[in-house]
Amino acid sequence: MKIIEAVDVSKSYRIRLGPSATTVRDLITLRLARGRTHTRRINALDSVSFSVDEGEVLGIVGNNGAGKSTLLKILSRIILPTSGEVVLRGRTGSLLEVGTGFHRELSGRENIYLNGAILGMKRSEIQERFDEIVAFAEVDEFLDTPIKHYSSGMFTRLAFSVAAHLEPEILIIDEVLAVGDLAFQRKCLRKMQDVNRHGRTILFVSHNMQAISRICRRAILLNDGKIVADGAADDVVASYLSTMLQTTNQKTWADTLSAPGDDTVRLRSVRVRNETGEVSSAFDIRRPILIELGYEVLKDCGPFSAGLELYNEEGICLFVSNDLSGEWRRVPRKAGRYISTALIPENFLAEGNFFVSATATTFEPLQIHFHERDTAGFSVSDSLEGDSARGDLAGHMHGVVRPILEWVTQMRD
């Protein structure tokens, strides 16, 4: 059964262009010059159509300003679409930005009952789940305190707990992993999986691509208010990353003459693969990454080395690596096709987005056959299971690499 159907949903806003008034004098001036200001219509969503099956977990991804939050607000009935139709066949629980759906003057206890009433639940039904909600949120000490005094972390824990435990048929979650400590983020992921196992439908927005791939089988990609991809979550994540990084997880040159290089060797392909050999854009920090360079030697020549440079999204070169293996080092090359693969070990790179530049170099005498920048890109995320170099540390971590080093601790008398 289709539990959610959106048909040609559009949302536009009219904004005024021109100077704004900050003083009484400005206000008088603007009123006298009434004809000099004009408005422009902005389309936050543009003819968006999709449907969601009962029990499905749908991921929604896209850059900031793509229309994700606007879509969720329409699905949550917080705002109305300018045109189009949305049909929801079931009670909907939403966790959007901090503050949505809660009365800040009321206590945590009162807001639990308020949200249950909004969902159409009887007081007895809410009471059955009350203790579980409070235990999950870990706010029992502040339960009778007005939530306007809660920290953002306390508020989000309570809001998520209410949304997940009051058993709506449809659960809408927007960036719940962006707030809260590491333990809470793990609890959220596990709870969403548990909710789905009980047949509930989940719409999940996140910039954490590893979480999208882990929880969702299907995802849609929004860009400039339009759906530009709808399919298997891994495929949509790859499409999103290629759009965001302005590169893909592989690049090939079918024509030798147009391929980068000289009259000795030319680059034919660059691919990023996972440990099973599949081309991939998203990697768990605990898994190895394989960078594969395919190149063609056009004529018999002396020894040279394939290599790569890895850059982060800030343009910083993290490292340079060349194939110095004994099999080919100082060994002349015969004409033909070659593939060189570099293995980046697990628990080496930090979280983030990375770009591969491909090189081929003869060192004696020095000759650069090709040096192609940003040929492929990929993303690394931490699954938050606690067995990476992050451990139980929450929040942002500095550094461009994050290895698990061997430590020895001794107690001295």
Brief descriptors of the model:
single chain, 413 residues, alpha/beta, Rossmann fold, Coagulation Factor XIII, Chain A, domain 1, 2 domains, 5-stranded mixed sheet, 18 strands
Describe the secondary-structure layout.
Blueprint: E1 2-17, H1 24-32, E2 38-53, E3 57-61, H2 68-75, E4 83-88, E5 92-95, H3 108-118, H4 123-137, H5 152-165, E6 170-174, H6 182-197, E7 201-205, H7 209-215, E8 218-223, E9 226-232, H8 233-245, E10 250-252, E11 265-273, E12 282-284, E13 289-297, E14 305-312, E15 317-322, E16 336-344, E17 352-363, E18 366-381
Parallel strand pairs: 3-7, 3-8, 5-6, 6-7, 12-18
Antiparallel strand pairs: 1-2, 1-4, 8-9, 10-11, 11-13, 13-16, 14-15, 14-17, 17-18
Helix pairs in contact: 3-4, 4-5, 5-6
Structural account:
It is a single chain. The chain has helices at residues 24-32, 68-75, 108-118, 123-137, 152-165, 182-197, 209-215, 233-245; strands at 2-17, 38-53, 57-61, 83-88, 92-95, 170-174, 201-205, 218-223, 226-232, 250-252, 265-273, 282-284, 289-297, 305-312, 317-322, 336-344, 352-363, 366-381. It has 413 residues and is an alpha/beta fold. It has 2 domains: 2-245, P-loop containing nucleotide triphosphate hydrolases (Rossmann fold), CATH 3.40.50; 250-381, Coagulation Factor XIII, Chain A, domain 1. A 6-stranded mixed β-sheet has the order 5-6-7-3-8-9, with helices on both faces. It has a 5-stranded mixed β-sheet with strand order 12-18-17-14-15. Strands 10-11-13-16 form a 4-stranded antiparallel β-sheet, with no helix packed on it. Strand 6 (170-174), helix 6 and strand 7 form a beta-alpha-beta unit. The longest helix is centred in the middle third of the chain and has 16 residues, at 182-197. It is globular, with a radius of gyration of 27 Å.
